[in-house]
Amino acid sequence: MPQVTLTVNGQTHTAEVEGRTLLVELLRETLRLTGTHVGCDTSQCGACVVHINGESVKSCTTLAVMANGANVTTIEGLAKPDGTLHPMQEAFREYHALQCGFCTPGMVMSAIDLVQKNPQGLTEQQIREGLEGNLCRCTGYHNIVKAIAAAADVMHGKRSEIARAAE
Amino acid sequence: MYDFAYHKPASVADAVKLLADPDAKAVSGGHTLLPALKHRLNKPSALVDLSGIAELKGIRRVGNAIVIGALTRHVEVATSAEVAASIPALAYLAGHIGDVQVRNRGTIGGSVSNNDPAADYPAAVLGLGATVHTSARKIAADDFFLGMFTTALEPNEILTAIEFPIPEKAGYAKMKNPASRYVMAGAFVSKGPMGVRVAINGAAPCVFRQADMEKALSANWSADAVAAVKQAADGLNADIHGSAEYRAHLVTVMAKRAVAAAG
Question: Which of A16, A76, A166, B150 has its CA 20 to 30 A from that of B59?
């Protein structure tokens, strides 16, 4: 069986996998990192998005062996060890950008990649287009878009903390 | 998914050897192959992962052409300064394939070799009169796309790069299926060293050139000129997403928009 060695949230793991083992299966079933979700399993919904070497990818459509040697970040790797949330997580909480929460890990991972790739800032339209690969069936996206705009201000150093949502 | 052996060769020569096994399949981004394998539509003995082959990567200008290595991901074409400066329609097309995460993994070589009727890249390859480079030869776009999911590639022949002649003008427009994002009908138009070309994707089992539109645009390069050309519905795709007549109508609309985008 193929062996893979990869770094997940800063920790190096080596595991034996089958050729057909998906990255999301390795993360959830072997490493027990169940924050990454499987929604559609057909590369459409984005609940399984993680970062490979800093880029957002759908881990249900990536073989574990393809991530050999890679640096993977999952939703579990965002908060600081003392529990302080990443600005994107904080913004999702502040703006009520989730209801059932199933899509949230993927949304947050996609949103961070989107903000990092656009240091010049993002329009509402660009945020909406950037979420094309993530489906949410609860929120209607509106609060997710607001949360990402608020997090972008903090991630780009324009504000020191997440702007409060209107009461 | 059925299980398979996994190989990651470091050179095209080694990959060709591994693909001599008729049940082995090449893979790079995997965004078409892995979903097909999940449905057990295919049972390969081995996957040959081309993504470690450095010679298949990169975008470079060679004379009056842009040569894009087979492993170049959609995101790289979409954000390439070289492509934006010389063939902006190609950068636009690459930036509108699937979604962000698909563009972060999917490659031009995979899309063109697979020749999905609803894929974007085949329209650019045919619409610009590109040349497909393989491990064995060079193939003109007009001789490459043979039918639904069928190309001129031999079983163990690997697409290595695509050479796009730089046009004077080019434009691309598509109507996406709102759920799957696949192309219902699209048009890639260009005017340049390869003449006036109109390639239609999404509408038929295989990308094709629309000769009547090419004639109309050769006489008068304007959106109005293609607006007068009707596409016949015979032989076009008909499914739950749209009838052949609907797609035929879309072909003219998309061609008009593509010419308008080309300027």
Answer: B150
